[in-house]
Specification:
about 100 residues; 5 strands; about 15% helix
Length: about 100
């Protein structure tokens, strides 16, 4: 079986699980099993025929976007990592001054 690692930001929708085991041959099959088991994750993990642009998916450390996308093969013992992109920043504005001489 392969293992999907659930990041902290998504764990509440996955009943608090850090990992979920799936029996899948591709990333798509693995994600389908994940959202079947935890329907609250569907909107956070799947969008149309793919994943949302803010969600990065890795299989054994390799970005699936550089491999076969959701058709990337998953072997028994593989780890699938869901990694939401971090965005944002500070609303504080900084004043830029001339360098000291």
């Amino acid at each position: 079986m392969a293992q999907i690692r659930i990041p902290p930001v998504l764990r509440s929708e996955a009943a608090g699980n850090r990992t979920v085991e799936v029996d899948a041959g591709t990333v798509r099959q693995a994600l389908d099993q994940l959202v079947t088991a935890y329907p609250a994750l569907r909107a956070r993990v799947l969008e149309g025929d793919g994943v949302p642009s803010f969600l990065n998916v890795f299989v054994d450390g390799d970005d699936v976007r550089l491999l076969g996308g959701l058709e990337t093969e998953v072997a028994a013992g593989s780890t699938i990592l869901l990694l939401p992109a971090v965005a944002g920043g500070s609303a504080t504005q900084f004043e830029v001054s001339a360098p000291r001489r």
